[in-house]
Amino acid sequence: MEKNYPPGFTYADFASQFHAEFYNPKKWVDIFKASGARYIVQVTKHHEGFTSWPSNHSFNWNAMAVGPKRDLVGELAAAVRSNSDLHYGVYHSLFEWFNPLYNMDKAANYTTHVYQQTKSSPELYELVKRYKPDIVWSDGPMGADSNYWKSKEFLSWLYNDSPVKDRVVVNDRWGSETGCKHGGYYTCSDRYNPGTLQKKKWENCMTLDLYSWGYRRRAKINDIIKIEDLIATLVETVSCGGNILINVGPTSSGIIVPIFEERLRQMGQWLTVNGEAIYSSKPWSYQNDTLTPKVWYTSQNISQGLSKKIVYALVLQWPKDNVLVLKSPIASKNTTVSLVGYPGTFPFSRLSNQGISIEIPVISFNQMPCSWAWTFKLTNIVN
């Protein structure tokens, strides 16, 4: 700051440089749909306290009063609902780094509630009443517990009396004691990816930029997650019963830069082929194969008279010599094996005790269903 800005320049002075002149919510929604996403969560206010909507509780520190002079939240919410089947959610930071009222309550060891009563809670009620989100993604409880934030009171209203009471979903960041313990689903910590099956529904909140939750002008190509790694993270997360929430940092001009757009569209291309192993899937008896590395499992129960179980083996690395050995599945006499997106079935043999060995025919390049991670569909599996 000392090197690049004049003396006395404050964080608040950046607001007038935030124009969002190229912000096109319909374009954003087109990218989100193409990514294969089923819901989006917009950061309506982060820890610096600037609200992206014209909040009545953030005087002169909101996107309508200074900077873009637009309701960035309302525009995206409307675009999502008018141009897609996506569910719209809002992210809201409870605390604010620079708010003197928050720091006053903090100094009093959260025995006073001035900030919570005049700023944080009113904003949450305002967001829900005005934009009617399907998801309320809370963050930033810091050292204050849910009693300070009056989270139980808000959630009681949200689920019983709010305009979204019959459909809303919330996460677990409602107080210093609630993370990974109380919530509609758990986020636990940023980039939470336990790698094992969890008892409660959870979400892996991660970033395309490996080092930042916002846009960085200085980011290098190697700082951006590779598509192979993004799909691997997606597969591992879903295999263990989680959802994935992928952070994209737009520029101050309102653009999702091409490298981020490319990653999202690539993920969508992959999901177009392999989505049956992801959407509405359930964790299987095994999450990853006990013999072959980089193989993760999901399953579907298809009701056809008797329950018919389908198991998907998502292979992150193409098998050597076109032979895929899977130790975890137990085949029945009616089991079939196929590659999702490719016609026909493949021959296989049973291993002693448990497992199968799949013989994959030579597949020409232009017949390969996708370029990264391949899904083998196993029907009528016993276990």
Automatic annotation (TrEMBL):
<dbReference type="InterPro" id="IPR017853">
    <property type="entry name" value="GH"/>
</dbReference>
<dbReference type="GO" id="GO:0016139">
    <property type="term" value="P:glycoside catabolic process"/>
</dbReference>
<dbReference type="InterPro" id="IPR000933">
    <property type="entry name" value="Glyco_hydro_29"/>
</dbReference>
<dbReference type="GO" id="GO:0006004">
    <property type="term" value="P:fucose metabolic process"/>
</dbReference>
<comment type="subunit">
    <text>Homotetramer.</text>
</comment>
<dbReference type="InterPro" id="IPR031919">
    <property type="entry name" value="Fucosidase_C"/>
</dbReference>
<keyword id="KW-0325">Glycoprotein</keyword>
<dbReference type="InterPro" id="IPR057739">
    <property type="entry name" value="Glyco_hydro_29_N"/>
</dbReference>
<dbReference type="GO" id="GO:0005764">
    <property type="term" value="C:lysosome"/>
</dbReference>
<feature type="domain" description="Glycoside hydrolase family 29 N-terminal">
    <location>
        <begin position="1"/>
        <end position="276"/>
    </location>
</feature>
<keyword id="KW-0378">Hydrolase</keyword>
<dbReference type="InterPro" id="IPR018526">
    <property type="entry name" value="Glyco_hydro_29_CS"/>
</dbReference>
<dbReference type="GO" id="GO:0004560">
    <property type="term" value="F:alpha-L-fucosidase activity"/>
</dbReference>
<comment type="function">
    <text>Alpha-L-fucosidase is responsible for hydrolyzing the alpha-1,6-linked fucose joined to the reducing-end N-acetylglucosamine of the carbohydrate moieties of glycoproteins.</text>
</comment>
<dbReference type="InterPro" id="IPR016286">
    <property type="entry name" value="FUC_metazoa-typ"/>
</dbReference>
<keyword id="KW-0732">Signal</keyword>
<dbReference type="Pfam" id="PF16757">
    <property type="entry name" value="Fucosidase_C"/>
</dbReference>
<dbReference type="Pfam" id="PF01120">
    <property type="entry name" value="Alpha_L_fucos"/>
</dbReference>
<feature type="site" description="May be important for catalysis">
    <location>
        <position position="205"/>
    </location>
</feature>
<keyword id="KW-0326">Glycosidase</keyword>
<feature type="domain" description="Alpha-L-fucosidase C-terminal">
    <location>
        <begin position="287"/>
        <end position="379"/>
    </location>
</feature>
<comment type="similarity">
    <text>Belongs to the glycosyl hydrolase 29 family.</text>
</comment>
<protein>
    <recommendedName>
        <fullName>alpha-L-fucosidase</fullName>
        <ecNumber>3.2.1.51</ecNumber>
    </recommendedName>
</protein>
